[in-house]
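Hey,
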Amino acid sequence: MNESETQIAIEFENGTILNGVIDRVKAPLITEEIVARLPIQTRAAMMRGEMRISLEIGKGNVKPTKEVNRGDIAYMPLGDSLVIYLKDSKTFSKVNIIGSIEASNHETLDKLKDVRRGSQVILRVPS
């Protein structure tokens, strides 16, 4: 891990924990805002193969794309959400990819399908 990367743990109400990395190089203002607010307690919802986590940081697009891969972590300005993708896909609106779930956690991604809509989630620095 280099200086621009910050490890994060994403802990869901059902006990599922994902470890990932967000990279300041990919979207400095967005990632700095997220890191400055950690830990963040909010709500999550599974929608069309993606886990959306409400952030309320109000940022725009930096390096927008519509192409995402399984395990990508992105910020979606439309909806002001952090999104974890469970499969490779094209997004409805443009997103800023800011990091990824660690490869060792890719099997755990499928457990997100069991997370209830509106469940609590905590974004934090791993202990």
